[in-house]
Amino acid sequence: MKFRSLLVSPVLFALLFACSDRVALDLQPNGGTVPTDFPNGGDIGVMVPGPTGGTGGGVVGGTGSGPTGGTNGGGITVEPGFIDFGLVAVGSQISRSFTIRNTGSTPLAPLELLFGANATQFSLTDNCVIPLAPYVSCVVSVWLTPTAPGVVTTTLTVSSATASFVVKLFGSSGGPPSIALSPSSHAFGNVDLNATSLPSWQFTVTATGGTPGTYTGALSLTIPTGFKVGKDTCTGQSLSRNGGSCTLLVLSDGRPGVYNGTLRVTSAMGGEALATLTMFASGGMVTGMIGHWQFDEGFGTVVKDSSVNANHGTVRQGSTSSAALHPAPVWESGKKGRALRIDGLDDWVNVPDSDSIDNTGINNQVSISAWIKLDRYNSRRPYNVVAQRHMVGTRVEQFFMGLNNGAPAVGISFFYGIGITNVPLNEWVHMAMTYDGIQ
Amino acid sequence: MNGVVFVCQDVGWPTATDKTPFTMGAGIAVEDIDEHMVGLIDEVRLYDIQLSPAQIAGLYNAP
Lengths: 439, 63
Known about the structure:
The complex is a heterodimer.
Chain A: E1 14-16, E2 76-79, E3 82-88, E4 94-102, E5 112-115, E6 122-126, E7 137-144, E8 150-159, E9 164-173, E10 178-182, E11 185-192, E12 200-208, E13 219-222, E14 227-232, E15 245-252, E16 257-267, E17 272-282, E18 289-293, E19 302-303, E20 313-317, E21 331-333, E22 338-342, E23 347-351, H1 355-358, E24 366-374, E25 383-390, E26 397-404, E27 407-413, E28 415-418, E29 428-435
Parallel strand pairs in A: 3-9, 11-17
Antiparallel strand pairs in A: 1-5, 2-4, 4-7, 5-8, 6-7, 8-9, 10-12, 12-15, 13-16, 14-15, 16-17, 19-20, 20-23, 21-22, 24-29, 25-26, 26-27, 27-28
Chain B: E1 22-24, E2 27-29, E3 32-34, E4 39-47, H1 53-61
Antiparallel strand pairs in B: 2-3
């Protein structure tokens, strides 16, 4: 009769080979040569390789038996005695095989395979024909199908009429550890990009859970616009389970603006951890900033440019472009630090022409921002200038930002834009203009 | 103004840049200084790029 492969329920499963009505199978001769001479008279023995193994004993002509078996006296061998399935993902399935060989000279029957305790995640498929002919081997496949994370271990006992042999089964499941990011958010608040050192915040990536011996896989980062990572011990690292960690130092990337974004850490094994970042950044550590006049001197006639261009200005008093220095500029408390008072008669600040400011206006992108606190609108002219570059000898503006009869106004060349609502008086007001350089 | 866009329009007149000073608090009209504002001026920033609304809002929200 031919013994067909079965995938059987592992629960207290006992597969009886022949001589049993619990498994009705079509048994046919299954290879091997049946000797005509049976010197060992149907005795069986076991040999136990693997961790539970040992030597000696065994069943040889009825002289011994037991799961720790030993040398085979010509009956049966079962190899290996220990099967490690390794790491198996929950829901997947993997098989390992062991071989039963009748080393005796008589057909071997019956044989019983019985799982031990906690074997619900194991099953088996056998290809053995019973009775097992003398000197013939057959293969039994054991399957592990994890249904939950953790270590799974059990035994499978192979028994004949006179002896038994234990195959130990070991596996684990659950996959790699997940990753967590702490804290889950950070608000940097207002960040002055001109500060000597930018504020930073440390985030910790930690591996949690996972099956013993597993790792997160290489980590990678996605950093939102407006931020950058300084010291980074995470990128490319693979964290071990149960507390493996690394750190990221996050700070502004130097560009002014309002930024809200998500810091994302992903692992090569599919893990992901997120943190929310927010920041209001302003200041000079930005590509494209060519001048920053803070008006914090508080005295004298020099208005320093804190940008790398150092286009320092001077406070002038007079009605021509060659007017002399102001004899006594008035400095007061500003929006930030100190501010300069413009009297509306003849005070102004001059920043000489330089290469660094030549490419602003009309044919080029330009942006200006300023804080002002107006006493009144200057009725001498419809336009009041906050900041300007004028084309010498013409009435054409490279750019202009100021007021028109009290309303906010901007200009490029002859073209002006004028707001509807007047700029408030006696309070600090932020003005800004930006131009894309496309006419 | 105060982080709010109040006007946006196409501009033109293609004219090459020249050697011109940058002035604050008043402007140069031909050769004369004129068009003075009346009040306090602080924290003037100049860029040779187009800033985004978010970047301008960042300047407005800065300390």
